[in-house]
Amino acid sequence: MKTTLELPDPLMREVKILAAQSNRKLKDVVAELITRGLQKAPPAAEPPLDLTQCLGKWPHYQSLDDVVAYVRELRKDRDED
Q1: Do 38 and 27 form a contact (C-beta atoms < 8 A)?
Q2: Crossing angle of helices 26-39/9-21, nearest 10°?
Q3: CA nearest to 70, candidates 53, 49, 50, 57
Q4: Going residue by residue through the chain (81 aa), what tens digit of pLDDT does each one get?
Q5: 60-66, Cβ contacts within 8 angstroms, sequence gap of 24 or more
């Protein structure tokens, strides 16, 4: 099947170089790369972070960002000493 794709110039250069280095037709290299990309398993979704596990010791913090800010303040104070 024929199709037209608009690809970024740097990407197309890489594909052309790969085709030339492997002495293959450009269409064959593109087909192989697309096939390989489709065969990869999608990344597993990470379960949502349970803040009760992280913030159990510090229930007064509303979010993980609050804890990070607190730790940064501790480090800043430590580094100033």
Answers
A1: no
A2: 110
A3: 57
A4: 888 989 899 899 999 999 999 999 999 999 999 998 888 777 777 776 666 665 556 566 667 677 778 778 888 877 776
A5: none
Query: Is there a contact between 64 and 51 (Cβ–Cβ < 8 Å)?
Result: yes
**How far is residue 52's CA from residue 26's CA, in Å, rounded to a whole number?**
53
Cβ atoms of 30 and 15 within 8 Å: the answer is yes
CB 65 within 8 A of CB 51: no
Rounded Cα distance, 63 and 24, in Å: 54
For residues 73 and 79, what is the distance between their CA atoms, to the nearest angstrom?
Answer: 10
